[in-house]
Specification:
The protein is of the alpha/beta class. It has helices at residues 12-23, 39-47, 61-71, 100-126, 152-173, 200-212; strands at 3-6, 27-32, 51-55, 78-81, 132-136, 178-183, 221-224. The chain has a single domain (3-224), classed as Rossmann fold (3-Layer(aba) Sandwich), CATH 3.40.50. It has a 7-stranded parallel β-sheet with strand order 3-2-1-4-5-6-7, with helices on both faces. Strand 2, helix 2 and strand 3 form a beta-alpha-beta unit. It binds NADP nicotinamide-adenine-dinucleotide phosphate (NAP).
Length: 232
């Protein structure tokens, strides 16, 4: 049986990753900040005995260490670093209105969070068969894509995730672990909003297909949910 750990799996794309792998019979470590309030995840776990729910705020070092302890000695095939925030949704990050605390929080979740979790779970990934880390990025982290102001915090957090992940992929290669950066498309979630053209089902099905055909030549590269290469 394959195993996957998903961060931020109580709603949106994270919930859909958990749902689709559970449907395929995978062992799913579904993590979220507040398990007590994660009703959709609880429903999923009730229907699939191989789904377990774990408390994990990706900015909390102790919770990350606790999660690594739960997995200690067990293989992990796939890690999906999905948790992410977009605090400046209402254009608060125009010059003169930049909230530097929000910016730091965004970096702590979107950039450092993925690294913290990956580093802690390496011993389990090294025992896995698939041996793959997927970092959920965004087209907004593509510097080539920037032709307007605003979104400084979110864009820089994902661009930093891209840069740091690209470097990490070389270190992981020596451990025979792969790394993919994926842009989910514009998706109807709380972050993406109602106008987005893609459903979580479509986006995650596409990203799962990229994961399924992963080979080491793809490691450290950035792809859209449909497998198209993304510009840096
Ligand atoms: N939707 C899109 O169009 C789109 C486009 C490009 C990239 N993305 C990326 O896709 C990923 C998922 O986004 P989404 O659309 O599913 O967003 P979402 O519906 O807003 O869900 C975000 C998830 O991240 C969790 N989260 C936030 N801070 C966390 C933390 N410190 N520790 C652990 N979990 C945390 C949230 O948990 P709580 O419920 O506890 O807040 C929630 O489960 C993100 O990385 C996002 O940047 C989305």
């Amino acid at each position: 049986m394959h195993s996957v750990l998903v961060t931020g799996s109580n709603r949106g794309l994270g919930l859909e990753w958990a749902r689709q792998y559970a449907g395929e019979g995978w062992r799913v470590y579904a993590t979220c900040r507040r398990p007590d309030e994660a009703e959709a995840l609880q429903t999923l776990a009730d229907a699939h005995p191989e789904v377990s729910i774990h408390r994990l705020d990706v900015t909390d070092r102790e919770q990350v260490e606790d999660m690594a302890a739960v997995l200690a000695g067990q293989p992990l095939d796939l890690l999906i670093n999905n948790a992410g925030i977009y605090l400046e949704r209402w254009g608060r990050d125009k010059l003169g209105q930049i909230d530097y605390d929000d910016w730091l929080t965004t970096l702590a979740v979107n950039t450092l969070g993925a690294f913290r979790v990956t580093e802690a779970l390496l011993p389990s990934l090294e025992q896995g068969r698939k041996r793959l880390v997927v970092n959920i990025s965004s087209h907004m982290g593509s510097i080539a894509d920037i032709n307007a102001p605003n979104d400084y915090a979110y864009r820089s957090s994902k661009a930093a995730l891209n840069a740091a992940s690209r470097g990490l992929s070389f270190e992981l290669a020596s451990l025979n672990i792969g790394l993919l950066l994926l842009h989910p498309g514009w998706v109807r979630t709380r972050m993406g909003g109602r106008e987005a053209p893609l459903s979580p089902e479509e986006s995650v099905a596409g990203m799962r297909a990229v994961v399924a055909r992963f080979d080491p030549s793809m490691s450290g590269k950035f792809y859209r949910y449909d497998g198209q290469a993304m510009p840096w």
